[in-house]
Amino acid sequence: MYPLASFTEIPVGSIQTESPWNLQPFIIPAPSKDLCASITTLGLIRPPIVIISGKKDYILLTGRHRLMAFRDSFPDKSAIPVLLLQENNSQETILHFLLTDKIHSEYFSPMEKAYFFQYCLECMSVKTAAQKFLPLMNEKVQPHIITRLISLCNLEPEVQQSIHSGQINPKLGLELLSFSQTDRKTLHTLFKQLEFGGGKQKRLLTLCRDLSGRQQTTITTLLAGKEYNDILNHPEMNIPQQGASLLTLLHKQLYPQSNRAEEDFNRRVKRMELAPTCSVKHSQAFERDEVRLQVTFATLSHLEKQLATIKEIQKAVD
Length: 318
Fold this sequence. Notes:
Blueprint: E1 5-11, E2 15-16, H1 33-42, E3 49-53, E4 57-62, H2 64-73, E5 79-85, H3 91-103, H4 110-120, H5 126-133, H6 143-151, H7 157-164, H8 170-176, H9 181-193, H10 198-215, H11 219-223, H12 226-232, H13 239-254, H14 256-271, E6 278-282, E7 291-295, H15 300-305, H16 307-317
Parallel strand pairs: 2-4, 3-5
Antiparallel strand pairs: 1-5, 3-4, 6-7
């Protein structure tokens, strides 16, 4: 055991939950039902870590949910088991305890890592933080990893919470930083409203950015247009249909020439009255004039029976 830490019991009410080491300042903490059930049945397997602050007060370092779950599960208990750190511990030592506890928790989110490194830079350089702590996270010793993570702390709390919960990829979060606060809020609201995953989030962001740039307007103003509102408030469309329609409309607005070519192509193919087993595909973005005819056969035997006809068609094409 570390010489400046010890397991003990302290009064539950003496712990200050407003901690300067909070890795989740972007959410209102609430313990899960599973955690409460576990603590009720088994007690505190991993007690919170606290730091002495004066003779009778303690600052919570980590274990906020465990503390709250303990209070909910045992309202009559006046004392709680903790790992107690002495106040003469260095800030670097405290950071080691904080990181070790998070590494052994179920999930160490990108946002929690961002706030961890933000605290690190209060007492050391980014290079030192990278050397000391990134290997413990199974990351390469590259200071820019820390710089990028800390940038996420500049996002709004609701966006940070979505990154923490895995609803938004950290890379997309970094891209959102290039937009205004208003546009970030608009995009984030649509991500949640339309239940978009990573790929569709990226596509929506890219289409909105490019189209608003071409029209020299903001994304918020762009999406306030009637055509977009009609889709988002359509009484008969379900959420996937609204999402698909919105992306289609944005694409048409951004690439009108390509869409006209697509519509003309589909009309001409429709006039051919091909069987359902046949389909015609054009090259990507109509980069070439060639087209591809695809014919589906029920079995290999069916294909063999039509082989002579296919070879005649090959000759005509060649």
